[in-house]
Amino acid sequence: MKTRTINLALQGGGAHGAFTWGVLDRLLDEPWLDFEGVTGTSAGAMNAVMLAEGWRKDGRAGAKEQLSAFWGAVSSKGFGLLLPEGVESSLTRWWLHTMQYISPYDINMLDINPLRDMLSGLVNFEALSKESPFSLYIAATAVRSGKLALFRESVLSVNHLLASACLPKIHKAIEIDGEYYWDGGFAGNPAIFPLIYDCSSKDILIVLLQTLDLDALPTGAEAIAERVTELGFQAHFMREMRAIAEFRENVSFGFVPGTKAWKLQKMRLHILQNQAYLSSLDQASKYNTRKGFLEALFLAGQSTAEQWLSQHQNDIGRRASCDISALFGA
Questions:
Q1: Residue 272 forms beta bridges with which residues?
Q2: Is 280 assigned a catalytic role?
Q3: Of 25, 42, 164, 321, which one is the catalytic site residue?
Q4: Which superkingdom, per the lineage (predicted)?
Q5: Residues 75 and 290 sit within 8 Å (Cβ to Cβ)
Q6: SS3 for 290?
Q7: Is 315 helix (H, G, I), strand (E, B) or coil?
Q8: In this predicted model, what pLDDT tens digit does every residue of 46-59 receive, in sequence order?
Q9: Catalytic residue among 25, 132, 183, 203
């Protein structure tokens, strides 16, 4: 099959990012599929950097190995809230509720973040900044202004990656060149526009970890709280996609204001998600880093990617495989 190139947009979602690991692992099995640009937020940023670092070392096989090493380290190092079997969900909810009233500046005064040492051991940031096989766009949120910051592969350090995944109730803000950053999900989860304007490939595959539509109205206190949190991390993405949808509708009526408009018009969007599976997982499971749970997410990601490829691989390079207006329009 003729080689086709796509861009990837990887959403954040804590431990649920292991689903994206499975997706990427399956995509890497296709020798005809290449990547140009990758944008990622939080767990999506971790996956993006591991994909690039592994490919830098040893191509597709290296990317698979690097992703596996990262998620294996996440489970073995206990970065989640590891509690006795059978009580994780209730105690994690209690912990999340308690963290609303406690600052990391009070309980983590030494700013200990075990993820820092793990990432430094897994990624040669100096080499990656010089030899990245892909264009990388790692999202973080500037605390003072609320603006989206996109860190490129040429400047990447462990701090940039930590900034993208910095949950303000758990870790102190990450300082980079005098600015402070929190999780990129507050400003772009994920950011799409750099893939449209900065990359040559017209195909963009968005890997979603949050559902676009709920099957039922949340009425319980926990369900409402979970949905409020999800909306907070999805609002900017939904606004960006709606703006794209509305613009493309205007283009269909002949309104084309410039070269950027041409890129928007020619963009081919693809969305990969497993709404039924991921919506069955509660908010607390995003902090579950047990090996068995991460492996279940990995397998779900693999099978979802397999199904998506069987349905849409021939769309890549030819046409969009989803209706932007139907999904994101008014």
A1: 207
A2: no
A3: 42
A4: Bacteria
A5: yes
A6: coil
A7: helix
A8: 999 999 999 999 99
A9: 183
